[in-house]
Task: inverse folding
């Protein structure tokens, strides 16, 4: 009897939560970059936990499509790993949309080598020359006489996009560069290959690999957030005008300023914009 | 007379009992028709699925060829699909797929067929009953587990102790093979001479052949030790892993084929005075060659279609190794490119970058289709030769 009662109570509680989640009709739709996607998802999960009456959907279709769907009023928030282009602003203004940028996090890419590698610092130009195939041996950089093994993220990833834009200046990477499918795989390859070079999100640096100083700046949360580290970029969420105060949209868009929001940003390997 | 009549009528009655009424007969025919149609539909489902796959892949592949033409895709090695001015040169990727598949064949075919022959004709039945299921477990391991092993265990091992591993495996493989070759050669050559020279020639060949093969082995050893293995995720790594993955298919199908050619054939061969080796090589293998070829083609299909292992452990560098047979360079295959480049953004835009992946899928499909046709042709020809064709 007791068990049945308890089960019934549990069941009704479940029904209540589910119906509350849907009844509120507080829906937030997010679309856009695959790089910002993890932040959006983690924020959405946390926000829905705190506010049971909100339903947030996150799709990842690329920054360009995020901008497109904000302009077409198909989403409330456009996640973008780059700033909106002039053309997109114009199209938005024509449709009566006023895009407002919120920088939710910073993204930095440390250059990684094997811990036994004596090379400590490189310049952005040197890194580019390595990936272009102009520098092929560590000897040319003051290291041992070993062929450099270049490792890159696959061309689909936002990490690759950042690297391609900030380091390669959109020049084509040499054909003998190896491609792997995740940040973790980059670290795995670099820690097991003494002559490898790679790049990954700041959250993936640990003792098994060595991060290099680039242009004499060592990558850390501080240097990335302050913009001193050269391979870094802000990550944006765009809304139509500044969200009306007190709405769930406003609550969601200020989440990244709260201590908990910053913790979430850090826990998935990005750098919060404010220090807490 | 009367008795006969009664007997007739009972027989009639019995016969009438066996006949169905018209209604029941119609029902029976109807249900038979429905059942047959249903079974036909189920059977043709798979062929319809193949047709649909062909149709949809071709539909999405053709725009690529219309937009970009054939020239660059098949002749250039510049693979930059995501650049502002994209290049779609897939030659190096075709080359990568070819190299890896060839490597897998070299690993899997000799191993697989000798294992199958050993199981069906050499090992005692009880041992075979234990060994065969164990080899089939290899097929049950998910490919991502193979890929993980290749990336985390095998690649670092190749990088750090690759020369040692290579020369060790060369010794393990080449010592028994060259020993057998020398012994067989000595016997065959000595057989052609008169009896009084027989032993001299035989031992002469044993000694000289042994010395020559030892010299060759040492040369191979120094050559393998002089190789420089810069990256562990390369064509060799993937070839070996794919070869192991193709093994269970090859072993199990060709062993079945060897078993299927029957006891009579073997007994007939022994009755004619053939030895076990002669029976295996001159009777059993020729009789089941079509099954063995089918096994090899199935294994090759497994190797060329495998995605996860090559995506994880081939290095994915879109380049033709220098020189082209250098298995120690990283390569990129068709399947890994399709899996890795299937970007979400491109589904919507319908760009060349999206369609080029379907063009690659079409090439893979056409290749496997041709390979299947080829194997059918070989099987048919072989059956004709053996007088089995109808």
Result:
């Amino acid at each position: 009897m007791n068990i049945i009662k308890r089960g019934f109570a549990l069941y009704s509680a479940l029904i209540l939560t589910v119906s509350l989640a849907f009844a509120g009709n507080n829906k937030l739709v997010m679309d856009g970059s695959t790089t910002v996607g993890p932040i959006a998802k983690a924020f959405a999960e946390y926000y829905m936990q705190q506010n049971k009456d909100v339903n947030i959907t996150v799709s990842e279709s690329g920054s360009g499509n995020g901008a497109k769907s904000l302009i077409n009023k198909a989403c409330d928030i456009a996640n973008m790993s780059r700033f909106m282009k002039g053309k997109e602003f114009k199209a938005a203004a024509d449709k009566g949309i006023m895009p407002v940028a919120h920088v939710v996090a910073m993204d930095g890419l440390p250059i990684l080598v094997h811990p036994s590698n004596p090379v400590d610092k490189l310049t952005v130009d040197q890194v580019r020359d390595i990936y272009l195939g102009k520098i092929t041996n560590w000897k040319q950089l003051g290291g041992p006489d070993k062929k450099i093994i270049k490792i890159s993220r696959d061309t689909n990833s936002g990490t690759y996009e950042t690297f391609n834009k900030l380091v390669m200046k959109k020049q084509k990477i040499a054909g003998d560069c190896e491609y792997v499918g995740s940040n973790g795989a980059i670290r795995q390859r670099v820690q097991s290959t003494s002559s490898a070079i790679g790049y990954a999100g700041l959250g993936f640096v640990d003792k098994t690999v060595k991060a290099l100083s680039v242009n004499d700046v060592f990558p850390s949360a501080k240097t990335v957030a302050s913009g001193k580290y050269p391979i870094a970029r802000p990550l944006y969420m765009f809304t139509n005008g500044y969200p009306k105060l007190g709405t769930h949209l406003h609550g969601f868009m200020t989440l990244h300023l709260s201590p908990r929001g910053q913790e979430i940003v850090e826990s998935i390997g990005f750098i919060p914009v404010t220090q807490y | 007379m009367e008795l006969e009549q009664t007997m007739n009528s009972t027989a009639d009655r019995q016969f009438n009992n066996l006949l169905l009424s018209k209604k029941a007969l119609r029902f029976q025919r109807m249900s038979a028709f429905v059942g047959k149609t249903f079974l036909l539909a189920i059977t043709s489902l798979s062929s319809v699925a193949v047709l649909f796959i062909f149709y949809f892949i071709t539909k999405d592949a053709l725009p690529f060829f219309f937009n970009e033409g054939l020239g660059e895709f098949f002749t250039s090695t510049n693979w930059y699909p995501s650049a502002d001015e994209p290049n779609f040169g897939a030659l190096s990727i075709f080359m990568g797929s070819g190299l890896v598949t060839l490597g897998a064949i070299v690993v899997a075919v000799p191993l697989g067929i000798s294992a199958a022959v050993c199981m069906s004709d050499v090992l005692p039945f009880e041992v075979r009953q234990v060994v065969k299921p164990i080899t089939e477990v290899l097929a049950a391991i998910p490919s991502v587990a193979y890929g993980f092993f290749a990336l985390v265990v095998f690649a670092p091992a190749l990088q750090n102790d690759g020369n040692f591993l290579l020369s060790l495996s060369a010794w393990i493989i080449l010592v028994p093979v060259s020993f057998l070759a020398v012994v067989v050669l000595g016997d065959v050559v000595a057989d052609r001479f008169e009896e009084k020279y027989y032993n001299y020639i035989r031992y002469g060949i044993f000694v000289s052949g042994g010395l020559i093969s030892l010299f060759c082995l040492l040369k191979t050893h120094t050559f393998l030790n002089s190789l420089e293995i810069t990256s562990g995720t390369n064509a060799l790594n993937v070839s070996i892993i794919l070869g192991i993955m193709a093994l269970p298919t090859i072993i199990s199908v060709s062993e079945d084929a060897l078993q299927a050619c029957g006891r009579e054939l073997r007994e007939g061969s022994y009755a004619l005075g053939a030895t076990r080796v002669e029976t295996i090589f001159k009777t059993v293998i020729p009789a089941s060659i079509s099954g063995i070829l089918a096994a090899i083609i199935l294994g090759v299909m497994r190797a060329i279609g495998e995605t996860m292992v090559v995506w994880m452990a081939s290095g994915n560098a879109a380049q033709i190794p220098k020189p082209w047979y250098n298995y120690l360079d990283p390569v990129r295959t068709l399947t890994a490119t399709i899996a890795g480049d299937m970007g979400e953004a491109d589904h919507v835009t319908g760009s060349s970058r999206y369609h080029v992946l379907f063009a690659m899928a079409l090439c893979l499909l056409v290749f496997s289709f041709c390979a299947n046709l080829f194997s059918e042709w070989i099987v048919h020809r072989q059956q004709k030769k053996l007088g089995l064709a109808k």
Summary: The interface with chain B takes residues 34, 60-62, 64-65, 146-147, 149, 154-156, 164, 170, 172, 175-181, 185, 188-189, 192-196 of chain A (CB under 8 Å).
